[in-house]
Design brief:
Chain B: Residues 1-64, 105-144, 271-324 are annotated as: Disordered. The complex is a heterodimer. Chain A is mainly alpha-helical. Chain A has helices spanning 2-11, 13-16, 24-32, 45-49, 56-65, 68-88, 94-114, 120-127, 130-149, 154-168, 180-185, 189-197, 199-217, 227-234, 238-267, 270-283, 286-308, 312-317, 367-378, 385-403, 405-411, 443-457, 465-485, 493-509, 511-517, 520-541, 545-557, 559-574, 580-589, 591-611, 618-627, 653-688, and strands at 319-321, 364-366, 417-418, 441-442, 633-636. The chains are: A mainly alpha, B mainly alpha.
Chain lengths: 689, 821
């Protein structure tokens, strides 16, 4: 437990400065902060400094405590500290490199904590001096680049990435981090790619590299030309993209596995509940959040890759054997607070193995499947803000996927069948489906299942309108593809229809509450238009003639919902007000549904009357439907198969800004922790060299 | 015996008789003599010059009975003739040796010898290389000068009639080292493809027969290995496979293993590379050459191998290895395919196997394109992509054979043409519009449409969004035809595009009707069955599949794009299959030559080792088992469903195809004693032909020796129904075809026997079990029966098969044990 104690100590920064006995390094720091040139008394001052073990918290605390004027007085010393740090990075002595990296870390952080109000230019001036800034940063980035790409120590590389992560997340809003301007000019994109393309470095640093890339891409995304965006969008090297996919795949799998373990724990008996209670004393509830938040960063990386890079789409379908079953459940739980960034999970070495492992129990999986499973977990509970954002991001990614032709092609590929075990929220009125019984189907079925699942589980007071709209859009896009390419999926469309009708029902019964916050007519219009797709274009993508009959049956069966909806939208559209326009759109869209209801209902009634049956069976209704198609005329509506393409700007810009901010905060928190734990490693390192 | 083999046209005869020594007015019959290979050296005697006067007297009996060799020997003194023949051959040898080196010894020297065209010791080396290319011409030229001493045998060897089949036969039957050496040399004059057909025979002789034969063959093999990577690998694989029956201790030191190692060590590089590099060594070789000339053939062969070994250790040669390894890519490719098969076999369910196969192949795709190819293909190409999602696991109980489709780009020469550049998966349309539009066969307006969208790429905002590209991607496939279920374009799209404000009305009934029509009009497909994933894949018409895969492929726009398929078998011995292929191919050629309209489909086999290999799948064909299981129809009704009702032209064509193929395969089954004939092993193609597959039980072997399947071949009443019943014209036609086919086959029996007989050497294959395999095979040709008797025989066999309950019993047995209908 010594380590945790230490950590606790480290977290309390203020107390550490009151130590009675000062280390040598602290004395040296004091010299730096003492206005005079430290080399005056000791010409080898800088050489010696980097041989000392860094006292991060002292240095940071010292910087923090300075006020503006004081800073200006010692600016030269800080400039030269920075300068010598950068110089030390080129040293052969690795201890110096390590210490220089950590010192830089402390410098960046200390300066920023101090100058919360100061402008970015002030900070640059303070650290490097205006005149030298460009040169210094160029040197720094070049050194980091060569450290990352060289075949030096792995922990050095790791530390480089930590430094970069630290630098990138030093401000809450990444776009206000002016120093990053130099990171844009002196790109380390290639170094990141190299880490991702190499199997062993990917296993060790892949996570950090991917997170770093995701953050860099989000620097002043909407205001300027970000070279990382441009570069990421044109990468076509498959091993690299695959590597990136693997890292994301692995992180998501890890999350899914943890969730599953926890779920099983909760379902276990008394004893396991007890152990989990004991366990949770170590984990603390922060762990739960941690895992979600870290995965937001990885999810952002997935989004950027899918959204920016067309070639990445192939990676989604790249099959890998399922990793989560292979991991040993014996992973020590108390270690998990640091897992997201510092230690490499044991199963990662699976990725080192170029040959697929030979285990008959392994289910083949791919990134898309893992992502769908992850989404199904995240979407279960959207009350929490983080989870809501996660779910939103999941849906955005799915939107991008559903728009991509190549992705659609493999989603609908009849030869690529998979069993996807989506997580379903336990609900009273339904049994937990046995995992084994899920048939192996094309992946689009899993996507549709996920959407249906979302629709039926989120009809609540805190109505996630935005998510619903996205969800319906995804379904619509998939159906448009099917219609266009005449793909006939053997999907149980009935489940989708009844989910949609129930959604309409919910909207109707909560009209007043919902209307206060949302434009429910937009959602209703989307839903009704989905029905219109089925009604007028069903011949192009429904699997069987009888499925078309079933569609009519479902509409007729639930005709009351449509009747009520029509009454409601008619009422709203006749009144003047902000909803007049959207409501009247819905009335027009309902024309075919109403035609069907008005056409068949009398027929069914007369059939019942003629045959003296009070309650018609499904088969009888279907019989009536089948024999009365010819007298029904439908109106073809325009633009049913048109949809608006997803675009990030301007609609989603706000969301992403907030998301990146929360990811930054999170990464910063974790980096600071793990940088400390790196000390242990470096101690060994120093004793060897 | 071989009386029918040589049907000499008068012109050919004259040519043969032109030489002065042929002064005797020898008749046709005498010429037919040498072609009977089984009679060993005797034909030689008759044609030896010393006894040429005796020929006229001997000819009449020969004409009548080919087996009359006994009489012959009475006329001519065997010993004398033999001596004479040897003399001639000796001369031939000397002639060649004069030129440079004897045929057998020329090779090892050539290894080095050809290496210095500009060497200081005069014009000799260039001469060698010339000789190596055309050894026989050289001989021929010289022999013209000495034509007076030509033997009949030599003249036969020189004649146009002397084909590869005869060469193989003499090589196998002759005990004369001289004859063998001559033929070994003569191999160079045949077209590569001709010799390739007999490669298994050649190599099996090399492995299992005596030194002399081996020495005769080796120069040719080495020469060809130098020329072609493909040939090298084929040899290496076959040598490995046919050596496997030897005892492990002898195997290690056998000639076959040594040659295999030599080939795989990749020392047999094209000599052109050596010319550049081996100059410093030249001072050594001339003396060596002269030294070797005096050696006997046997010692030469030893020096041959040692010579090559030496070159391996020669540092000068080592330097030539800086160029890319020739054989490695292909070997790795094959190895990974086999590795997949092995891993699949460990998985319990078909579904898991299929998923695993797909994911393994997707990994394999990462390494493509490469300088690899499918040896079963008929043209040079590079493999560029394996459309992994199309691969299927085939039905097999405990092994995991699988079928993959392979996209290739045809090229001039896979060894020298550059390997295509990799195109990422998602670049399907963008490259089409940029690079290769002019030749990709899209109509101009389509081209225009794709070009018009190109400017969008320059639009900054959209540069990396999928928008326009997405639109573009769907449009193209739709123009060709619909991507999924082959429905013609409907008016729905055009309706939406109309800008009229007039409301458009459609009848719900129309939508419903269109839906059912479209589903009905799609060609009958099989339902996806997780337990039989291959059925759907195999049922899809080949052209349809090619089109579909081409559309989905990033390479599809290239004009030289082709689709191939191959079955990868791991854990199965394909040597018998290869034998069956050769016999089928030979019979096919014979029937074609004799104009008997029998139809069979030999499918190519690639033996990689004694327990792995590849098979060229028969396209557009599914097994009768799958047909019956999926359609739940009788065969005749299935024919009507697929081809139309009786008396439609389609049906009649299909029926004729059925009869012709049925007759062909019945004969095959009879002659080769093909067993294990259940419906899973008989395919039905889209034109109505049946195709027998799986020749695992032929000749002397039968499954588990249960004694089932005693009838000559499989002829069920369902088959007869398709032929129009027992009394129908087609059934008579069927029997007539069988008779004609048997007569034709009998005429060329030797060609068939020879293939089998040579392969029996040193073989432990179950089909050669027992001692009477060849004798029984010969007996089934019924050389002694008249045509009338043969007709009776055919009738009997058909009757027997019809009445045979064992066929039915066997089907029942298969149904019970393997679930095959």
């Amino acid at each position: 437990m010594a380590q945790t104690e230490k950590k606790a100590g480290l977290l309390r920064r203020t107390s550490s400065s009151k130590k009675p006995l000062k280390e040598k390094v602290v004395l040296m720091y004091d010299e730096i902060f003492a206005k005079e040139d430290p080399t005056k008394n000791n010409p080898r001052f800088w050489d010696e400094l980097f041989l000392m073990k860094v006292n991060l918290e002292y240095l940071e605390g010292k910087l923090e405590s300075l006020d503006g004027d004081e800073v200006m007085k010692i600016k030269d010393n800080i400039n030269s500290l920075f300068h010598h740090c950068v110089q030390a990075l080129g040293e052969e002595h690795q201890i110096k490199v390590v210490n220089a990296l950590q010192t830089l870390c402390a410098l960046f952080r200390g300066v920023h904590q101090k100058n919360k109000s100061a402008t970015g230019f002030d900070i640059i001036n303070m650290l490097m001096g205006f005149d030298k800034a460009e040169l210094r940063m160029k040197e720094l980035m070049e050194s980091l680049d060569s450290l990352l790409c060289g075949d030096g120590s792995e922990s050095l590389k790791s530390l480089c990435l930590k430094l970069l992560l630290c630098l990138v997340t030093v401000t809450d809003n990444i776009s206000q981090n002016t120093i990053l301007e130099y990171v844009m000019i002196n790109s380390i994109f290639e170094a990141i790619l190299q880490i991702l393309s190499d199997v062993s470095s990917r296993a060790q640093h892949g996570y950090d590299a991917v997170v770093l890339l995701a953050l860099l891409v989000n620097y002043r995304k909407y205001e300027s030309v970000n070279p990382y965006i441009v570069k990421l969008s044109i990468v076509d090297d498959e091993p690299t993209l695959d590597g990136m996919g693997m890292v994301i795949h692995h992180a998501l799998t890890e999350y899914n596995r943890q969730y599953k373990d926890k779920e099983e724990e909760n379902q276990g008996g008394f004893f396991s509940t007890l152990t989990s209670m004991v366990g949770s004393m170590f984990i603390a509830d922060a762990d739960e959040k941690l895992s979600v938040q870290t995965n937001e960063a990885i999810l952002l990386a997935l989004y950027e890759a899918v959204h920016l890079n067309r070639n990445f789409i192939t990676v989604l379908a790249q099959s890998h054997p399922e990793i989560d079953m292979a991991t040993t459940p014996a992973t020590p739980v108390p270690a998990s607070p640091t897992t997201p960034l510092s230690t490499t999970p044991p199963s990662l070495d699976m990725m080192n193995n170029p040959e697929l492992p030979l285990d008959p129990n392994l289910q083949t999986s791919n990134l898309l499947i893992t992502f769908l499973k992850y989404s199904s977990i995240v979407m279960q509970d959207t009350k929490d803000e983080h989870r809501l954002n996660s779910a939103r991001l999941c849906l955005i990614i799915l939107t991008c996927i559903a728009e991509d032709q190549y992705a659609d092609a493999f989603l609908h590929d009849d030869n690529m069948n998979f069993r996807v075990n989506l997580h379903r929220m336990p609900m009273r009125h339904r049994k937990k489906a046995a995992d084994k019984n899920i048939p192996s189907r094309p992946l689009v079925c899993a996507v549709l299942d996920l959407m249906v699942e979302f629709i039926i589980t989120h009809m609540m007071k805190e109505f996630p309108m935005d998510l619903y709209v996205r969800c319906i859009q995804i379904i619509h896009k998939l159906i448009c593809y099917q219609k266009k390419c005449r793909v006939r999926m053997h999907y149980t469309w009935r489940e989708l229809w009844s989910a949609l009708i129930n959604l309409l029902k919910f909207l109707l019964s909560n009209e007043t509450i919902l209307l206060a916050k949302h434009n429910i007519f937009q959602l209703a219009l989307q839903v009704v238009n989905l029905f219109n797709m089925f009604i007028t274009y069903g011949d192009t993508f429904l699997p069987t003639p009888s499925s078309y009959d079933e569609l009519y049956y479902e509409i007729i069966r639930m005709h009351q919902v449509f009747d009520n909806l029509y009454c409601m939208v008619l009422r709203v559209s006749t009144n003047a007000g902000q909803w007049k326009e959207p409501a009247s759109k819905v009335t027009h869209a309902l024309v075919n549904v109403r035609a069907i209801i008005n056409h068949f209902n009398p027929k069914i009634e007369s059939y019942a009357a003629v045959n003296h049956i009070s309650q018609l069976s499904e088969d009888q209704v279907l019989e009536v439907v089948r024999s009365n198609y010819d007298t029904l005329t439908l109106k073809l509506q325009d633009g049913l198969d048109q949809f608006e393409r997803y675009s990030e700007q301007p609609r989603e810009a706000g969301f992403f800004k907030e998301l990146v901010r929360s990811i930054s905060l999170n990464v910063r928190k974790n980096v600071s922790l793990s940088t400390m734990s790196q000390d242990v490693l470096l101690k060994e390192f120093s004793s060897i060299s | 015996m071989g009386d029918t083999e040589l049907e000499l046209s008068p012109a050919q005869l004259e040519e043969l008789q032109q030489s002065p020594s042929a002064s005797s007015n020898s008749s046709t019959s005498s010429l037919s003599l040498p072609s009977s290979p089984s009679s060993g050296t005797r034909p030689l005697t008759s044609s030896s010059p010393s006894t040429s006067e005796g020929l006229p007297t001997s000819s009449p009996p020969l004409d009548v009975i080919s087996e009359g060799v006994g009489e012959l020997s009475l006329v001519i003194d065997t010993e004398v003739a033999k001596k004479a023949c040897q003399e001639v051959l000796q001369k031939v040898k000397f002639l060649k040796a004069d030129g440079e080196v004897s045929s057998a010894s020329s090779e090892p020297v050539l290894v080095n010898g050809t290496a210095h065209p500009e060497s200081t010791d005069g014009g000799k080396p260039p001469k060698i290389s010339q000789e190596e290319a055309e050894p026989v011409k050289n001989v021929r030229r010289r022999q013209k000068n000495n034509s007076s001493k030509q033997s009949w045998l030599l003249r036969l060897f020189e004649s146009k009639l002397f084909d590869i089949s005869m060469a193989i036969s003499y090589l196998y039957n002759s005990k004369e080292p001289g004859v063998q050496a001559y033929i070994g040399n003569r191999l160079f004059s045949f077209r590569n493809e001709e010799v390739d057909f007999y490669l298994p025979q050649l190599l099996n002789m090399y492995i299992h027969m005596d030194e002399d034969v081996g020495d005769a063959i080796k120069p040719y093999v080495v020469y060809r290995c130098r020329q072609s990577i493909n040939f090298s690998l084929q040899c290496a694989w076959l040598l490995g496979a046919y050596s496997s029956d030897m005892h492990i201790s002898t195997q290690r030191h056998s000639r076959g293993t040594k040659l295999r190692k030599l080939i795989l060590s990749d020392e047999l590089k094209p000599s052109s590379q050596r010319i550049r590099r081996e100059v410093p060594e030249h001072s050594l070789s001339p003396s060596k050459r002269t030294h070797q000339r005096s050696k006997s053939d046997a010692t030469v062969s030893i020096s041959l191998s040692s010579n090559l070994k030496r070159t391996a250790s020669n540092p000068k040669v080592e330097t030539s290895q800086d160029e890319p390894v020739r054989l490695t890519p292909q070997r790795e490719f094959i190895k990974s395919l086999m590795g997949i098969g092995k891993r699949l076999a460990t998985l319990p369910t078909k579904e898991q196997k299929t998923q695993r196969l797909i994911s393994e192949l997707s990994l394999l795709n990462h390494k493509l394109p490469a300088r690899v190819w499918l040896p079963t293909a008929a043209f040079d190409h590079h493999v560029v992509r394996v459309p992994h999602t199309q691969a299927v696991v085939l039905n097999s109980k405990d092994k995991a054979p699988y079928l993959i489709y392979v996209e290739v780009l045809e090229c001039e020469n896979f060894e020298t043409s550059s390997v295509p550049v990799r195109i990422p998966e998602t670049r399907i349309r963008s490259t089409r519009s940029v690079e290769n539009l002019p030749d990709c066969g899209i109509t101009p307006d389509q081209r225009a449409s794709s070009f018009s969208t190109v400017p969008n790429y320059d639009n900054d905002d959209e540069a990396w969004s999928v928008d326009d590209i997405g639109e573009l991607q769907v449009e193209l496939p739709e123009i060709h035809t619909n991507s999924y279920d082959n429905i013609s374009q409907f008016s729905v799209d055009s309706i939406t595009s109309q800008e009229s404000k007039e409301p458009i009305f459609i009848a719900a009934g129309d939508i419903r009707r269109r839906l059912s029509e479209q589903l009905a009009h799609t060609p009958t497909t099989f339902k996806r069955d997780p337990e039989d994933p291959s059925a759907v894949a195999l049922k899809e018409p080949w052209q349809e599949k090619v089109r579909r895969i081409r559309e989905g492929s990033p390479y599809g726009h290239l004009p030289n794009w082709r689709l191939l398929s191959v079955i990868v078998k791991c854990g199965d011995d394909l040597r018998q299959e290869l034998l069956a292929y050769q016999v089928l191919k030979q019979l096919q050629i014979i029937w074609e030559q004799e104009r008997v309209p029998l139809w069979i489909k030999p499918y190519k086999i690639l033996v990689i080792s004694s327990d792995s290999g590849m098979i060229e799948p028969v396209v557009n064909a599914v097994s009768i088992h799958q047909v019956k299981k999926q359609s739940q129809l009788l065969l005749l009704d299935y024919f009507r469903q697929e081809h139309g009702d009786y008396n439609t032209e389609e049906f009649l064509t299909a029926q004729r195809n059925f009869v012709q193929s049925c007759a062909g395969y019945c004969l095959i089954c009879y002659l080769l004693q093909v067993k294990d004939r259940h419906n899973g092993n008989i395919l039905l193609d889209s034109e109505g032909h049946i195709i027998h597959i799986d020749f695992g039980f032929i000749l002397s072997s039968s499954p588990r020796n249960l004694g089932f399947e005693t009838s000559a071949f499989k002829l069920t009443s369902e088959f007869v129904d398709v032929m129009g019943g027992l009394d129908g014209d087609m059934f008579n036609y069927y029997k007539m075809l069988m008779l004609q086919g048997l007569i034709a086959a009998r005429k060329h029996m030797e060609k068939v026997i020879q293939i089998v007989e040579i392969m029996q050497q040193g073989s432990q294959l179950p089909c050669f079990h027992g001692s009477s395999t060849i004798r029984n095979l010969k007996e089934r040709f019924h050389m002694n029966l008249t045509e009338e008797q043969l007709q009776v025989l055919v009738e009997q066999m058909v009757d027997g098969s019809m009445r045979s309950i064992t066929t039915k019993l066997y089907d029942g047995f298969q149904y019970l044990t393997n679930g095959i209908m």
